[in-house]
Amino acid sequence: MPAQEGEDAPLLPPDTPLKIMEEEKPLLPGVTVRAATPERLVHLCVESFGDDGDLIDDSEYPSVLFLMHKWFMTSEELGKAFVDIYQSCDETILCTKPGCIHLHSNKGCEIQAYKAKICYAVRYWITNFPVHFDLDTHLKSVIRKFGTLVNSEGNHMFKELIDLSKVPSYDWMRNMSVRPGNSMRHNRKVSLVFNHLEPLELAEHLTWLEYKAFRRINFTDFKNYAMTASLKDNPKLERSIALFNGLSQWIQCMVLSKTTPQQRADVIVKFVNVAKKLRTLKNFNTLMSVVGGLTHSALARLAKTNACIPSETQKTMMEYTELLSSNNNFSNYRKVFNQCPGFKIPILGVHLKDLILLHTALPDRVEGNLINFRKMAQLSQTLKELTKLQNHEAPPVCANMDLVNTLRLSLDLHYTEDEIYELSLAREPRNSLSSVSETPSTPTKPVVFADWLAGVSPPDPNTINKHVHDMVEAVFKNYDHDKDGFISHAEFEAIAGNFPFIDSFCVLDADQDGMISKAEMKTYFFTANCHALRNSFKHDFHEYTYFKPTFCIHCTGLLWGLIKQGWKCKDCGINAHKHCKDLVVMECRSKQHAACNRRLDSVSNGPSPHQDLTYSSKRKMSQRQKRNRVHVGTQTEEAYFTDLSRHINGNWGIRDKLIAENKQLKEKLEQSNEQNIMLKSHLGVIRKNTIAFILEQMDALNIQRDTEV
Amino acid sequence: MREYKVVVLGSGGVGKSALTVKFVSGTFMEKYDPTIEDFYRKEIEVDQAPSVLEILDTAGTEQFASMRDLYIKNGQGFAIVYSITSLQTFQDIKTMKEQIIRVKGIENIPMILVGNKADLEHQREVPTSEGQMLAQTWNCPFLETSAKNTQNVNEIFIEIVREMNTSPVKEKRKCCSCVLL
User: Fold this and answer.
1) CB B84 within 8 A of CB B35
2) Among residues 652-681 of chain A, which lie with CB inside 8 Å of chain B?
3) Helix H segments across A61-155?
4) pLDDT by residue (tens digit) across A505-541?
5) Which end of chain A is more exposed for a tag (fewer CB within 10 A), N or C?
């Protein structure tokens, strides 16, 4: 009987491989195994269930196993393991009932009882972790086959237990970007303008966005991050972190966009009130992002501004800084978080840190090849908390989609830490009275701190384009009262206030008629965003013919057809369906890399006068590199086609003609490309200088105004 | 007994948590529970003076820009770690000192530069001299370590305690003024 194997193990001769190690003091109720082979783990799971299908002594063992199994085996393997046990039951289980023929109709048959427990275990899996089944077709088919097997034995009661038809759909988890669901269309009337927004409204909508992004991150995403400590190929986690950082930056920019200390202090007070509401909503992750933004060095150094903040607000700030402080291993936060019942959003960073530490400290396998189940039990406590939101139906907030769209776009804006800090210096320059010691760095020196964050990129233009579209539609729905497709200048200005610093460069009302049309507004926001993004995160998709089966990066489906099956990015090489390519939310890695190098180089090349030059020449270089890459790409393609044509008809004449033509075209392309690049770099230099000049002038004016105030 | 807060900074994957684990593990061999309050605390004796260290390990939170600021604000001494097998991680930390100065608002900050993964000599991308040079410009000690072979692990923390003892930080006053601002 398998139940005895474990107890026998220590008595076996020393050369027999160990199958199980017992835990002396279980970490969790029922988790008595310290380490074991996968087969033993599955047996133990079956044996955690009583004859009536209930858990024996409320053991937490099955929930840990089902939650954690993907750490060491696929769901398909686990499913198969249950089927294997079921099939070998007749040999491994000893039925002591006299005269029993082991059919399901035999009451008290021990083999049938064991089989029932296997089905109870699988049922437990299906009801408690439906997401595993909906997202994994291999597992689904294993369990379906299992159902057929059970059914063929004539056991309909068991078949019922492992029915998959009630598994809810987790379709939303496959999408990277947060899209408004129809069910969320509450017609709550809210203002879209920051100045008119209530702190509660802001907090609720931020929570809604957070909830949507957080629950998409699945077990495998967490596991990959814990193992690699990198966000590469982890777009969902990356998106959530981008939201976190985006909010912190938005807060800093909103504060710094105001010209007088009092105005800046007012914005800070407003965000502290938002923080209060977030605390009430138990959204600790967004709270961390808000507090992180408010206490950031770019704001903390604003002496005049901080002098205008009422003491009450300062007290609240201190309270939250204390709550989220990393002191004593975040003990304040952990205490409060563990005591919170119901809906709550944990601080992602804190728990990721726990995962990484556990993974570093403990091996996955011990004593030869036994799975270290104690580690699994420990990891499960963190992962349970992190994946809890997946099963939460909805956050306790109602969202207005128009405001969500506006906010989402505001948070997409991307600045470097350095840009923000310089803004802060421009608002309240360092002086000899300031407690900050004498300029550790000259303000103009371009130090790019954002490089340290190389893993997180701003959202790509396609996403932004969609977000701009949604936002503009939302604005017109709410403010274009006579529905003529135009809004007034004043209304536009109010909305643009939500997007600090992007409005200085563009002339919006292109036809100068004093009214803003939808098209004008969209162009405006998109151009402004491109500027903020430095235009280097877009995929360069082109139609492509594959010579071996290739899968779409977005929907993971096969790219069908004989030729031109899909679209390939010229720079990073990802592949997608025609209809999926616009939905891909993944940064273009090779460009990202080039961008990083460029920034690093310009840093090492010293102060600003030379920077323009290095910048543009670097850009030229990277573009040339890109072109070379494209070149190589066409060559390989050409080689493929060469092979193909030789095999098919061996018609050399046509081939040569084509090659000659191809060459000619390529040369032409090269020439125009070169011209294009030259013009672009000219334009870039001119634009850069102009903008620098305008900015300087503006800052000078602001400083003058500040000092007057 | 004096208490020291040491922040371990560096890019993802350089082995920060491995160093931390090696250092604190002496007291917690049997059960690792990184969620308990004093998991990251350890008592060590430096130059005959017993001291308590609290390690603020930033592993896993490297990408969270505003959390890093909070960590730095809380810390007194800083161990800045790169991997000798990755030039990128060395480039990443070059601006760290400036950022710490920015957050702390003081120039004289106790810190140490650490090149980890010294056991992977055959994959080395950052020469020892490069690390020494950076440490010289930062005016701080430099160590090459291996969490795997427990090479120089305790030394990092002993050195940083020494640094904190020698630079009489006027932090108290600075901290208060920060709050008052």
Assistant:
1) no
2) none
3) 61-68, 75-92, 110-128, 130-135, 137-152
4) 344 555 556 677 777 777 777 666 544 443 334 677 8
5) N
- Of A329, A448, A449, nearest to B37 by CB-CB distance is A329
* Chain B CA closest to residue A437: B106
Query: What backbone phi and psi angles, to 5 degrees, belong to B140?
Result: -140, 160
Distance, in angstroms, between A586 CA and closest chain B CA? 17
For chain B, the distance separating the N- and C-terminal CA atoms, rounded to the nearest angstrom, is: 31
With an 8 Å Cβ cutoff, are A245 and B63 in contact?
Answer: yes
- Cα–Cα distance, A238 to A554 (Å, whole number): 15
State what percent of residues in chain A have pLDDT above 70.
72
The shortest C-alpha distance from B48 to chain A (Å) reads 25
**3-state SS class at A560:** coil
Nearest to B32 among A292, A362, A421 (CB): A362
Q: What is the tens place of the pLDDT at every residue in A69-128? A: 999 999 999 999 999 998 888 888 777 777 777 776 667 788 888 888 999 999 999 988
Tell me, letter by letter, the H, E, C secondary structure of B12-73: CCCCHHHHHHHHHHCCCCCCCCCCCCCCCEEEEEECCEEEEEEEEECCCCCCCHHHHHHHHH
Whether A327 and B54 lie within 8 Å, measured CB to CB: yes
Residue A534 DSSP SS3: coil
A326 contacts B56? CB cut-off 8 A: yes
A327, A349, A421: residue with CB nearest B64:
A349
CA–CA distance, A180 with A403 (Å, rounded to integer): 11
Q: Cβ B95–A382 below 8 Å, yes or no?
A: no
pTM for the full model? 0.70
pLDDT of residue A678: 87
Q: What is the pLDDT of residue A244?
A: 93
Cα separations in angstroms, A291 against A212, A285, A295, B64: 21, 10, 6, 13
pLDDT digits (tens, 9 = 90+) for A553-583: 777 777 877 778 888 888 778 888 887 777 6
Residue A122 has a pLDDT of: 92
Which one-letter amino acid corresponds to residue B48?
A: Q
Alpha-carbon distance B166 to nearest alpha carbon in chain A (angstroms): 20
How many Cβ pairs within 8 Å bridge chains A and B?
A: 170
Residues of A in contact with B177 (CB under 8 A): 435
Calpha distance A597→A451 (Å, rounded): 9
**What whole-number distance in Å separates Cα of residue A62 and Cα of residue A374?**
14
Can you name the residues that pair with B136 across neighbouring β-strands?
A: none
**Using one digit for the tens of pLDDT, what is the confidence trace for A331-365?**
999 999 999 988 999 999 999 999 999 998 888 98
